[in-house]
Design goal:
The structure is a single chain. The protein contains 1 helix and no strands. It is mainly alpha-helical. The chain has one domain. The radius of gyration is 30 Å and the shape is rod-shaped.
């Protein structure tokens, strides 16, 4: 069978529907990806705050240790 030389309106409507469905899937994937990136950013902020808190507490403990021994 060769290439189609003409398209009926019904065939064009079918093609439009399948293209719209494909774009709908892509839009859904983008929304899910945005949600995952937002959750990752939230987790990273929490991790940075936790690391800074641990460093602050550690330096405080070292300063206290040095102050009491010298």
């Amino acid at each position: 069978m060769g290439a189609r030389t003409s398209w009926s309106d019904e065939r064009l409507d079918d093609l439009k529907g399948s293209v719209d469905d494909g774009f709908g899937e892509v839009k859904g994937s983008i929304v899910r990806l945005d949600d995952r990136v937002n959750r990752l950013q939230h987790a990273m902020v929490i991790a940075v705050v936790a690391i800074c808190t641990m460093m602050f507490a550690g330096f405080g403990a070292l300063i206290t240790l040095f102050a009491t021994h010298f």
